[in-house]
Amino acid sequence: MFFLHNLERRVLLHPSYFGKNMTELVTTKLVKDVEGTCTGDYYIIAIMDTFDLSEGRILPGSGMAEFTVGYRAVVWRPFKGEVVDAICTSVNQHGFFSNAGPLSIFVSTHSIPPDIQYDANATPPQFTNHSDIVIEPGTHVRIKIMGLRTGVGEMFAIGKIDGDYLGREMVWCRKCTKAVGDRMCLRTGTAALATKKMTPIGTWATRIGLTSQAPVSSLLAHNITKLATTEGCFGRHQRELGFPVVVSK
Question: Which of 36, 64, 174, 223 is 20 to 30 Å from the Cα of 194, by its Cα?
Answer without folding.
Answer: 36
